Amino acid sequence: MTARSANVHQARLLRLLRDLGPQSRVALGDRVELSRSKLAVEIDRLLETGLVVQDGLAASRGGRRSHNVRIAPSLRFLGVDIGATSVDVAVTNGELEILGHLAEPLDVRVGPVAVFERVLAMVAKLRDAGLADHFDGAGIGVPGPVRFPEGVPVAPPIMPGWDGFPVREALSQELGCPVLVDNDVNLMALGEQQAGVARSVRDFLCIKIGTGIGCGIVVSGEVHRGVTGSAGDIGHIQVDPAGPPCACGNTGCLEAHFGGNALARDAVALAEAGRSVELASRLEAAGRLTAEDVSAAASAGDPVALDLIRQGGSRTGQVIASLVSFFNPGLVVIGGGLTGLGHTLLASIRTQVYRQSLPLATGNLPIVLGELGPVAGVVGATRLISDHLFSPA
Amino acid sequence: MTARSANVHQARLLRLLRDLGPQSRVALGDRVELSRSKLAVEIDRLLETGLVVQDGLAASRGGRRSHNVRIAPSLRFLGVDIGATSVDVAVTNGELEILGHLAEPLDVRVGPVAVFERVLAMVAKLRDAGLADHFDGAGIGVPGPVRFPEGVPVAPPIMPGWDGFPVREALSQELGCPVLVDNDVNLMALGEQQAGVARSVRDFLCIKIGTGIGCGIVVSGEVHRGVTGSAGDIGHIQVDPAGPPCACGNTGCLEAHFGGNALARDAVALAEAGRSVELASRLEAAGRLTAEDVSAAASAGDPVALDLIRQGGSRTGQVIASLVSFFNPGLVVIGGGLTGLGHTLLASIRTQVYRQSLPLATGNLPIVLGELGPVAGVVGATRLISDHLFSPA
DNA sequence: CTGCTTTGTCCTGTGGAAGATGAAAGTCCA
DNA sequence: TGGACTTTCATCTTCCACAGGACAAAGCAG
């Protein structure tokens, strides 16, 4: 069963079946501009390939009942989301419903080989659980810019050792199926578009706040990757020329204010200055502080930690305000590893954006948290590869 | 002769003939994926409508000579570019070559009725010069956000009295032809894409620096207008929270630093402070200073005026650097009413962008001046309407 | 004037759209 | 409960449009 669809009509039908679930032939006919005869031929061909199967009778619409068709339930997509400090792996069926999901902490800096080993072990675990005996396609996200056509990371600042590593090629070899590679932020955007808050929006931004800060850009329903694949790299936009130095060589970048490392740095400073008992005790206990410590302290109500989050939200809001003025999106989605304090962050971002951008752009601009949380990336990954497979050859 | 083409093939052919000039039928066949018979039929239909005419024999390619076809030479498009302080009007043929061009200073704040009167007088002048006895379509640009589908300015900050004025409807009535209205910056981008530096680039930004500062955004060859038509409104991006107050109510907007009014304000302050003899004498002579005075003084070598320009360029570069990080374009075009000092400005913008953006985004990112200068807007206007007319009905 | 190349037109076969027909299922009423 | 009627679905048939090849016309080169 080769998953690549042959022509534009079949691709269209496959995507409809993916997104709408099992449908009667007539319901499909209502959605595509094809004659009944042509539709019947194309569906027959899809049935022949095995990508689509008959699925009983549809509910009656008052007369003779129609036969349902659906994406073959044996179809399996793999989604991999490599973050800076964690890996998510999920298996979905052809309708991109998650059948199994594993998450593990893992520092991407251990390099591609070690990461791959780990990812493959997780995949094996999902396989052993009986969720898949094969994969029809896989999508993988990495936390840095990617030369999309080749599926190769380029000059990734937080991924030493990954530059030029043939991620697509390597994974495709291992899994024996087609693979696409993209920036993790783009996949998050795709995920929210597929199954989250952005389902009906054609132009939106998806801000991911974690170790790095990035932005997925969707224009007319399509991800915009830029000419070198670095679009959305907003972590190194300067918010304050007098700000702290950044790993990129400049000063006052957004990430230098509010990236994971910056947050940890500020927290340590505040703990050592005796400003926060909560942070100080955590520092005492662990010997170091991470962004998660700040997050936990803030969730526990520590005012100093909360203030760090608010300040960061405000800085981020400042940048988003600029982007909103520039891009005039219909929605801004905030996501990333913000367990628990999403709403605190959201509030300060909103305040800043609504204050700074012009009313015409913010008039009815929703700024919301992502719906999918940790699975946005993996869902986006399967969406990416399924879009690729369900497209004209 | 109705200009609206009937089907997708005819639209395609018309655009090819517009952009490539007279072509043999065979050369057209090489560019479209149509059978010879179908191509012949479609061209015959176009000939019937009168939109396309026979144009002698093509040069021999070694055998029987082919008959050329071309867009009807009687086709006339009108381009109107209303700037904050000037109006440009031009007439083109069907190949968007400028046949006549008039420019006049005019403050847009006199309101739509007065501006229209003036524009129509200019149109009449071009008509009287024998350049056109009719118009097949017109495009018009205004210096503010436009609800594109309706052709109506919305909440334009520097155009009091224009909010909601039915520009499209009114002009269409007067001229008796289809009209499209857009933001002047978008038209500039379209102009540079049609006949300027951006001919072969699919993703680029077009920065217009004048009374206001705006940015045309082209994604995958299409202008991105945003959900409310305010995309590219970068004049009110904050570059310095401690900066001067802006008319929009915020502080430190780019326009508050480097818009036309800001430039005049700073120049007056410097002149009065005795920092520049050149500016002081101009202030003395005219009783006031404008951006043009600064421009002239800078061109004359006045170091204080030059410094103003450099500082402004640096501020602008700061914003462009952010946009480049975000959008990762393949080209940045700088244009607007920068007579003479384009290169000074360009230099300081380049310095700032190359310093601040990441190498991956700036690696081979050309930042160049627009090629078309004052006619970019009007060319873009005719491109806009011709695209509309040369599209499937 | 004779081959050779290119261009334009005609013709035929195929594929798809739309209407017509038959089959299956549901509804209504006796 | 059964039969007639209605509604919907699937297939069959017809017609049209287009692609691609064949052939004629026009120009070039020697």
Topology summary:
Two copies of one chain form a homodimer.
Chain A lengths: L7 H13 L2 E2 H7 L4 H14 L2 E6 L9 E5 L5 E6 L3 E7 L5 E8 L6 H17 L8 E6 L3 E2 L4 E2 L13 H9 L3 E5 H12 L8 E6 L3 E7 L2 E2 L30 H5 L1 H13 L4 H10 L4 H9 L3 H25 L4 E5 L5 H15 L2 H4 L4 E3 L6 H14 L4
Parallel strand pairs in A: 4-7, 7-10, 11-14, 14-15
Antiparallel strand pairs in A: 1-3, 2-3, 4-5, 5-6, 8-9, 11-12, 12-13
The first copy, chain A, binds a DNA duplex (30 and 30 nucleotides) through α3.
Radius of gyration of chain A (CA) equals: 23 Å
Poorly predicted parts of chain A = none
Greatest interface and its residue counts? A-B, 45 and 45 residues
Per CATH, the architecture of the largest domain in chain A is: 2-Layer Sandwich
Q: How many separate helices of chain A?
A: 14
CATH topology of the largest domain in chain A: Nucleotidyltransferase, domain 5
Approximately what portion of the residues of chain A adopt beta-strand conformation? 15-25%
Helix content of chain A: 40-55%
H-E order of chain A: HEHHEEEEEHEEEHEHEEEHHHHHEHHEH
Q: What is the strand tally of chain A?
A: 15
Spell out the CATH superfamily of the largest domain in chain A.
ATPase, nucleotide binding domain
Instruction: Say what oligomer this is.
Output: homodimer
The span between the termini of chain A is 15 Å
Can you walk me through this structure?
The structure is a homodimer of 393-residue chains. By secondary structure, chain A is of the alpha/beta class. The first copy, chain A, has 3 domains: 8-71, Winged helix-like DNA-binding domain superfamily/Winged helix DNA-binding domain (Arc Repressor Mutant, subunit A); 77-194 and 376-389, ATPase, nucleotide binding domain (Nucleotidyltransferase, domain 5, 2-Layer Sandwich), CATH 3.30.420.40; 199-370, Nucleotidyltransferase, domain 5 (2-Layer Sandwich). In chain A, 42% of the residues lie in helices and 18% in strands. The first copy, chain A, is built from 14 helices and 15 strands. Chain A has a 5-stranded mixed beta sheet with strand order 6-5-4-7-10, with helices on both faces. In chain A, strand 11 and strand 12 form a beta hairpin. In chain A, helix 2 (25-31) crosses helix 3 (36-49), helix 8 (260-272) crosses helix 9 (277-286) and helix 8 (260-272) packs antiparallel against helix 11 (303-327). The longest helix of chain A is centred in the C-terminal third of the chain and has 25 residues, at 303-327. The first copy, chain A, is globular, with a radius of gyration of 23 Å. The two termini of chain A are 15 Å apart. The relative contact order of chain A is 0.13. Chain A binds a DNA duplex (30 and 30 nucleotides) through residues 24-26, 34-38, 40-41, 60-67.
